[in-house]
């Protein structure tokens, strides 16, 4: 009866492993509610592929050794349908019914925000890779650990570059168009703090509506005011619209920086119109990071591409890193008690192909910087931070008439 | 807000740019709104699935371009494909709610909208899609005023579609049948008009108009599976303002809405653009109500 029920519910890996594996002593079960349907389905799929790839790799290398005994990792997945309430419910179920004691995060800050109170209530650690909202780390959660950089970091690099390139940062005029949602407003907060420090002036500060389908009003303003730096954040649609309409309206700015341009595939979709754009990203396959499991960042990217037949997005890379963090913590804790593992997680200090991972007391990773790509000749090239850069930034962007 | 207004004074061509771009956006709203007016007037259905039909039309063009066709071919092809989709939707679902209460039709088409959103997400993914028509843009006055060719084509096409729709309803046999059915379905049936076919054709025609609008939208902007609502809301609003029986008024209201919306977005900030649309709608409804009340007073 129980067997039948379980195999009916479990998805993917859990199904392959079969319900009999549930009580097998050599298995550590991790649970995750990720978005396989709904508006986050593409990114949810990346998250899952990242988790799966790391689990396969770790298991192939013999699994994790805890008090002298080897354990294999296994993930139980549920589909949260991209809805926060569903995500919280499913994690409750993972903990209560499936007796999972270690949770991997969902995709997006909104879902992480919904799930964190549940894992906190049961004292179950959650290592997440796709919830970057700064608000998550202001609630004194004890069991939440994030491997990625927080949202306020996203476009700070662009402000930094602009300040360095100009002789006098206090003369710089900045235009901002940020979607009116928690993610983009966090990005704005980080940018504003740095602008203030440099004494830069905001000439446009528009909040884009979530149901955005046209940016021409904002872009007309930019065209008239000629700022030195234009910053845009509005998920995939914001990035796509900005590139499309800036070309159509021939808006000239010396420097443009955006979020989400890799997931919006601006290079593939818009070609020359996307040239010179700076894109904030958590990770790039051309960075020089390395670890023992996956090798270098580019090794990871190659493995991912061979396995899934698509270019490795950073969402997958950070998800893989989250599983590595767990494996590392299990081994160091030498125990499978959630409390011991939590303690080990707080002491994490490791290098991965995804970057350095060290958590501060709020659980966010403070050891890894954000990177900025620039679109150069149809390719995404890392230009920031300078110690990991592949090429120099092309600046200023020539006006449309000369491109 | 004041500094945004001052920008208009400092750069007068900017005002032209904002208004012209608004008018061109309005043309695409008008195209979708014709269809809504038609369905509302003839079938007495508020078609909440309007925006999703627009999005589907966009996906048709997107697929065509993926298969290597030139983007502009997408406009007629999307219209034809969506005509078929509209016909099937009517025969399968919509005909069941035609003579029911208007709230039932709203619920039914709302459900249909959710279904189409999810199906689009399943088949095309949640990614934001766009098609580069490769036509570039015109620019005047030192680059201050820019008009994308795609939007200009959309504008002309919307006017042409409006004119042909008007001509079709007035002079074509089927158009006359549609108008007759709209006026009195029972009498039309008695006089030998196949009203079921008229309804199906009207609904399919609406879908075709949406298809053309979607095809233009994917070239001028972007689409994704959940993009439908803004188009539904604007169509609804245009029809509420213009009424169901007047193609010319729909064009005027569509263009006016586009221009006003863009100016509002510029002056008040983009975050208030949609709020402005709704505030405008409420104002117009209240004003109409008061005017109608006064007229009733007069008749007493």
Describe the protein's architecture and organization.
The complex is a heterodimer of chains A (403) and B (300). Chain A has 13 helices and 17 strands. Chain A has helices at residues 2-9, 12-17, 41-60, 84-96, 109-122, 156-165, 182-198, 216-225, 235-248, 266-270, 297-308, 314-333, 338-346; strands spanning 27-34, 64-66, 69-79, 102-104, 126-128, 144-146, 173-179, 201-208, 229-233, 255-259, 278-281, 290-291, 295-296, 349-352, 355-358, 371-376, 379-384. In chain A, strands 8-7-9-10-11-16-17 form a seven-stranded mixed beta sheet, sandwiched between helices. A six-stranded mixed beta sheet of chain A has the order 2-3-1-4-5-6. Chain B has a two-stranded antiparallel ribbon with strand order 1-2. Chain B is 77% helix and 3% strand. Chain B contains twelve helices and two strands; from the N terminus they run αααααββααααααα. Chain B has helices at 2-10, 12-43, 50-66, 74-92, 102-124, 149-171, 173-183, 185-190, 195-220, 228-242, 247-268, 273-299; strands at 137-140, 145-148. With 300 residues, chain B is an all-alpha fold. The model of chain B has no long low-confidence stretch (mean pLDDT 88). Chain B has a single domain (2-299), classed as ABC transporter involved in vitamin B12 uptake, BtuC (Orthogonal Bundle).
């Amino acid at each position: 009866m129980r067997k039948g029920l379980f195999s009916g519910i479990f998805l993917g890996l859990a199904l392959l492993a079969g319900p009999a594996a549930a009580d097998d002593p050599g298995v550590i079960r991790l649970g995750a509610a990720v978005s396989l349907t709904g508006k986050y389905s593409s990114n949810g799929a990346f998250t899952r592929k990242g988790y799966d790839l790391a689990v396969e790799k770790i298991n192939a290398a013999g699994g994790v050794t805890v008090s002298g005994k080897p354990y294999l990792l296994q993930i139980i997945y549920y589909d949260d349908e991209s809805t926060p309430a569903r995500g919280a419910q499913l994690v409750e179920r993972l903990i209560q019914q499936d007796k999972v004691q270690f949770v991997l995060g969902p995709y997006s800050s909104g879902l992480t925000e919904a799930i964190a109170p549940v894992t906190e209530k049961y004292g179950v650690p959650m290592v997440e890779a796709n919830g970057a909202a700064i608000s998550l780390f202001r609630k004194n959660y004890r069991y939440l650990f994030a491997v990625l950089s927080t949202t306020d970091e996203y476009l700070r690099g662009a402000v930094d570059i602009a300040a360095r390139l100009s002789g006098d940062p206090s003369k710089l005029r900045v235009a901002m168009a940020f979607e009116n949602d928690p993610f983009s407003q966090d990005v704005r907060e980080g940018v504003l703090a740095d602008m203030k420090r440099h004494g830069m002036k905001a000439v446009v500060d528009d909040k884009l509506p979530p149901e955005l389908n046209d940016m021409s009003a904002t872009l007309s303003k930019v065209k008239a005011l000629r700022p030195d730096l234009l910053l845009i954040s509005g998920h995939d649609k914001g990035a796509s619209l900005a590139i499309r309409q800036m070309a159509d309206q021939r808006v000239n700015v010396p420097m443009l920086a955006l979020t989400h341009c890799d997931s919006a595939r601006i290079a593939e979709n818009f070609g020359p119109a996307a040239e010179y754009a700076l894109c904030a990203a958590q990770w790039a396959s051309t960075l020089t990071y390395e670890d023992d499991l996956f090798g270098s960042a580019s090794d990871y990217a190659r493995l991912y591409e061979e396995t899934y037949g698509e270019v490795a997005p950073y969402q997958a890379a950070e998800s893989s890193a989250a599983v590595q963090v767990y494996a590392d913590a299990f081994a160091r804790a030498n125990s499978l008690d959630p409390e011991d593992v939590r303690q080990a997680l707080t002491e994490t200090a490791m290098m991965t192909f995804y970057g350095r991972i060290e958590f501060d007391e709020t659980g966010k990773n403070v050891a890894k910087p954000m990177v900025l790509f620039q679109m150069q000749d149809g390719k995404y090239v890392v230009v920031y931070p300078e110690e990991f850069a592949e090429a120099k930034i092309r600046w200023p962007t020539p006006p449309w008439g000369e491109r | 807000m004041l500094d945004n207004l001052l920008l208009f004074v400092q750069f007068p061509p900017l005002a032209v740019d904002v208004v012209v771009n608004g008018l061109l956006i309005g043309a695409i709203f008008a195209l979708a709104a014709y269809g809504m007016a038609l369905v509302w007037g003839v079938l007495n259905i508020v078609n909440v699935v309007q925006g999703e039909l627009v999005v589907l039309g966009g996906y048709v063009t997107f697929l065509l371009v993926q298969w290597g066709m030139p983007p502009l071919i997408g406009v007629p092809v999307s219209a034809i494909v969506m005509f078929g989709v509209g016909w099937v939707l009517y025969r399968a679902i919509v005909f069941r709610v035609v003579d029911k209460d208007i709230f039932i039709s709203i619920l039914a088409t709302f459900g249909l909208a959710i279904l189409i959103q999810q199906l689009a997400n399943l088949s095309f993914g949640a990614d934001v899609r766009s098609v580069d028509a490769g036509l570039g843009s015109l620019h005047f006055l030192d680059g201050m005023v820019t008009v994308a060719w795609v939007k200009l084509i959309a504008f002309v096409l919307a006017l042409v579609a409006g004119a042909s729709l008007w001509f079709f309803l007035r002079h074509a046999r089927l158009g006359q049948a549609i108008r007759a059915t709209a006026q009195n379905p029972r009498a039309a049936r008695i006089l030998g008009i196949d009203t079921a076919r008229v309804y199906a054709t009207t609904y399919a025609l609406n879908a075709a108009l949406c298809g053309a609008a979607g095809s233009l939208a994917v070239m001028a902007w972007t689409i994704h599976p959940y993009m439908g609502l803004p188009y539904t809301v604007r169509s609804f609003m245009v029809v509420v303002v213009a009424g169901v029986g007047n193609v010319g008024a729909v064009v005027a209201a569509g263009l006016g809405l586009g221009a006003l919306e863009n100016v509002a977005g510029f002056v008040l900030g983009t975050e208030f653009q949609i709020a402005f649309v709704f505030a405008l709608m409420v104002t117009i409804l209240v004003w109409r109500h008061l005017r109608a009340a006064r007229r009733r007073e007069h008749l007493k």
